[in-house]
Design a protein that fits this description.
Elements (H helix, E strand, L loop, with lengths): L15 E4 L9 E4 L3 H10 L3 H16 L5 H10 L9 H8 E2 L9 H10 L2 H13 L5 H6 L1
Antiparallel strand pairs: 1-2, 2-3
Length: 144
């Protein structure tokens, strides 16, 4: 029997794609697949990017004094009570949104601050990362 050496083993390569984010730069940034640790943390939270968007819509409606849209109410009714742990979105972004040299664009704290200025963009990026990580499909992400 021949036993493999480290040099015989294929090195892991995370899936990635370039994506245009004009709010960040006039050049594309790279979004890449989550690591296993982040994937397990996200999956154990019980929330998806769609859930996060629903919560954002509810919060914005409450803050503005506007009624919560009927479609959002129906979606929550279909899900039942939601008491999941929050997804570490900014931690995922800090690990999975990188530059051409695969260096993080922002730290987790910087994503927290930047995300408050551009609330839609972190969710868009997070959905692409979910697709690359096999959490959702392209079709499901496109619906939202």
């Amino acid at each position: 029997m021949t036993v493999a050496k480290r040099s015989d083993i294929k090195r892991p390569v995370r899936k990635k794609e370039a994506i245009a984010v004009p709010e960040l730069s006039d050049k594309d940034v790279v979004v890449r697949q989550m690591t296993l640790g982040l994937y397990l943390e996200v999956m154990s939270s019980g929330m998806s990017a769609d859930d996060l968007n629903l919560l954002r819509v509810v919060r914005e409606a409450q803050e503005s004094g506007k009624p919560i849209p009927d479609a959002v109410r129906r979606s929550f009714a279909e899900r039942g009570e939601m008491n999941p742990k929050p997804i570490p979105v900014c931690r995922v972004l800090a690990d999975c949104v990188v530059d051409a040299d695969e260096q993080p664009i922002f730290s987790e704290e910087e994503w927290e601050a930047w995300g408050m200025l551009h609330k839609e963009v972190p969710f868009m990026l997070y959905k692409r990362i979910e697709v690359l990580s096999g959490i959702t499909t392209v079709e499901a992400a496109a619906k939202n």
